[in-house]
Amino acid sequence: MRSVVPAKTFEISKRFYIDLGFESRPLTHNLAELRLGAYAFLLQGYYVQQWADNFVMHMFVSDLSRWWDHIVSLDLPSRYGVKSPRAPQREDWGVVASVIDPSGVLWRIAEDVSTKLSETVRAS
Q: Are 61 and 109 in contact (CB under 8 A)?
């Protein structure tokens, strides 16, 4: 399964995701697969503000601290005119950072606690 993420301006959104670390594979002139490791989503050059404003992607990473450092280094607000990313904060179920893409799509990035637990168990 792959989600289809809207893009108000396809090329700008594609560049935003490439800067974050995704690899892009064009499928048509306004559709691309954006891949990060084993996971991917489709970026579509189609935009409805209500859809984008209510669209949320959730991504687990193995090292949120390292991801956060990477996100901050990109200076996304000045490069893409997006809202400032939200630093990692503890929520009931874990620690989560947030990034909003150029079309208004919210990305919630959390550390995969199960990976940390597995690593801790193996180290013991």
A: yes
51-81 tens-digit pLDDT: 999 999 999 999 999 999 999 999 999 999 9
Q: What single-letter amino acid sits at 78?
A: S
Q: Which candidate, 88, 89, 83, 87, places its Cα nearest to that of 101?
A: 83
| Cβ count near 5 (within 10 Å) | 21
Are the C-beta atoms of residues 7 and 107 closer than 8 Å to each other? Answer: no
Going along the chain from its start, the domains and CATH numbers come out as: 4-123 (3.10.180.10)
* DSSP states of 58-91: EEEES-HHHHHHHHHHTTHHHHH-PPPPEEEEEE
In 30-93, beta strands by DSSP E: 31-36, 39-44, 56-61, 86-91
Burial label for 8, CB within 10 Å (0-12, 13-18, 19+), is middle
